[in-house]
Amino acid sequence: MGKISASGHGQERKDAVEPVPALTPRTVAVEPNPVPGEHGHGPHIEFKFLDELRKRNVVRVALLYLVVCWLILEPTHVVFHMLEVPAWANRLVLMLMALGLPAVAVFAWAFEITPEGLKPTVQVDPRESIRPLTGRRLDRAIMVVMALAIAYFVADKFWLSKRLPAATSEQTSAQGATLPSATPQPMPTAADDKSIAVLPFVNMSADKEQEYFSDGLTEELINHLAHASDLKVIARTSSFQFKGRNEDMRTIATKLGVAHLLEGSVRRSRKELRITAQLIRASDGSQIWSQTYDRSLNDIFKVQNEIAGTVALALKTALSASAIGPSDAASVDAYNIVLKGNFMWHRGNKGDMQLALALYQEATKVDPNYAPAWAKLADAYHNLGYSGQISVADAKSAGLKAVRRALSIDPNLAEAHMTLGEIHCDFDWDFKAAKAEQEKALELDPNNLAFREDLGILTWMATGNADGYIEAERQRIMRNPVDARALYTLGDAYFDAHRFRESADALAKALELSPGAEAFSSEYAGALLFMGQYDKALAAAEREPNEEFRLGVLPCIYWKLGRHAESDAALEELKKKYGQELDAYAVGQMHTCRGETKAALDWLERAYVQHQAGPPFMKFDRYLLDLHKEPRFRDLLVKLKLLGDTSDPSY
After folding, report:
1. DSSP class of 15
2. Fewest CB within 10 A of the end CB: N or C in the chain?
């Protein structure tokens, strides 16, 4: 911007004035003394453009514009949220303000205020200019606006935040988190008011592959808040139904049955994070609390604890100690890889689940002392083995190694105890050991509905009492109101309890939400079958998209309808395609339904020898009730440790 100048033509000026003849009758203009620090031996640099900016008050106008914009943005953000204006509108306002800055600067350069009004600068005589007066007025305006900005900042940090009463010592110790300075206002304490859904945080990163991180943060916040015993927190499945959908906040809250919504965004650039979070009152869409966290990735655990703790405080509830995650940064890299694994696992297809397994393995290598990574690895092995994607022997061996490593690092890791219980149940058929581990998991994490569900199933398998199973599924519906799978599992629980009318009702609702979901129609057909509604059962079974599940019920329905040839054909197809290695248990069920006892027991024994998934459920399986008088069946139950011996009086 500077230039070498002498008379404005870029020539080097001289260090001294040339001598003038004494007789010359003219006045000589002597250069002023050099500026201190200059030695007169180099060129004198003048920043004429910058000086002109100052004279024309361009800098003052730009500064005033920026401060005014800052004051406008905050209330605009709040109002937009109250009106549920889409997020892009906030960005549009910011972009317009950014575009306005150069326009204002150009305007200040080109025009000047005069006593006669606004005139182009080039038309104003310098001798008549009132620029100095305008500059002083602008200085006063800047000071006033800055004072307002400082007052707002002080009020926000030291007065508005104090409006919420401090947490009791009991709450503070239970939460274990340092609350951010922007504490929300107090909320009503009505029971129905203590409900919240955490909507998927938006990935604002330039790299769209960072979506796994924003999803992972959302899931972690759901898990944190779910530890509050008196707070209804919508589960991940239902919350993520609204991912990427620009729906009205009140509509979402109504569908989910909650009084509050937590939403936000994540912007990540390498190790730097900007996380915004805001708590919204669903009844009017108003913002209760908001905060922006500019942190390092190493602080991610602290940020999660702070957000969850602040929301819990706003809703006047307390988090249990198990809700608080680690506060140090030692395991951040492993944690980041686990989030990638979770993201792939939730996709649900076989390829992605195998990739998730590899990511969990990688996380344990990055930080061998990060217990949650070992627990995730063990759970993945269990699920892949149970679903037949890897052998039971390999799944059991690797799963046990991983879960025991997790518990050696953290003996109170509830997820590890639950996975160990599932391995004992599904791979060892050691239901006593499984029950002990699952009860330990529930003791450590009493609000975990998945733990209650698994323990309820285990209790039903051993005793036939499905009350705990059904109640866990009812609670799951409350946390998953728009999740068809939750309704399906409730229908399954009713089916296991032989309450077929209630089972059919729940399954019908599940099918309304998700007509093409696998297993829904076949389970619905089974409920109708045992209600004696054979024609309706056949129609439902024929709508089942999964061939294995469809063939697992059709032979019985055809048989009850007297269509024996079609029953024979369907049963033979089931044996040929799925019976030998995958589902000998279903073949045994169908033979029992047809009254073919010997064949049924042969196939059930095959399922036992091959360690398929079905045998642990056979004691109270409705399809197999006609076998209970058979000694071979009782012998199977003894082998499964579902009976103490063949004379067990509880049978």
Report:
1. S
2. N
The pLDDT score that the predictor gives to residue 49 is 67
Could you tell me if 49 and 1 are in contact, meaning their C-beta atoms sit under 8 angstroms apart?
A: yes
Q: Is the dihedral of CA 386, 387, 391, 394 positive or negative?
A: negative
Assess whether pLDDT exceeds 60 at residue 3: no
Write the CA distances from 441 to 168, 374, 451, integer angstroms: 28, 16, 7
Domain locations along the chain = 52-151, 169-323, 330-435
The DSSP symbol for 424 reads: I
Q: Which fold has domain 169-323?
A: Rossmann fold (3.40.50)
CA–CA gap between residue 187 and residue 164 (Å, rounded): 9
536-575 burial, b for 16+ CB within 10 Å, e for fewer? Answer: bbbebbebbeeebbbbbbbbbbbbbeebeebbeebbebbb
Amino acid (one-letter) located at 22: A
Mean pLDDT of 463-479: 91
The distance from CA 18 to its chain's CA centroid, rounded to whole angstroms, is: 80
Strand bridging mode 286-296 / 260-269: unpaired
Distant-in-sequence, close-in-space partners of 528: CB < 8 Å, separation ≥ 6: 500, 504, 534, 536, 537, 540
The identity of residue 350, as a single letter, is: K
Q: Which residues of 247-256 are buried (b: 16+ CB within 10 A; e: fewer)?
A: eebbebbebb
Do strands 195-198 and 232-233 pair parallel, antiparallel, or not at all (unpaired)?
parallel
Interstrand relation of 272-281 and 260-269 (parallel, antiparallel or unpaired): antiparallel
What is the C-alpha R_g of the chain? 36
Determine the Cα–Cα distance for residues 19 and 23; give it in Å rounded to an integer: 12
Number of residues that this document lists for the chain: 651
Tell me what pLDDT residue 568 has: 97
Give the angle 604-602-593 at the CA atoms, nearest 5°.
70
Return the beta strands (E) in 257-365 as ranges.
260-269, 272-281, 286-296
Q: Name the DSSP class of 159.
A: T
pLDDT at 258: 92
pLDDT at residue number 80:
59
Across 364-402, b (16+ Cβ under 10 Å) vs e yields bebbeebbbbbbbbbbbbbbbbbeeebebeebbebbbeb
In which residue are the tokens 């323990």 written? 455
CA distances from 215 to 203, 210, 302, 433 (A): 8, 9, 17, 35
- Per-residue model confidence as pLDDT tens digits over 313-326: 888 776 665 555 55
Least-confidence region, from 158-162, 577-581, 609-613: 158-162
Please compute the mean of the pLDDT values over residues 337-361 and round it to a whole number: 92
Question: Which is the CATH superfamily of the domain at 330-435?
Answer: Tetratricopeptide repeat domain (1.25.40.10)
Tokens (6 digits) for 254: 């109504």
Is pLDDT above 50 for 599? Answer: yes
Q: Which two tokens stand for residue 533?
A: 């509604």
Tens-place pLDDT, residues 293-306: 888 888 888 888 88
**Considering the chain, what percentage of its residues have pLDDT values greater than 70?**
78
Q: H-helix or E-strand containing 562?
A: none
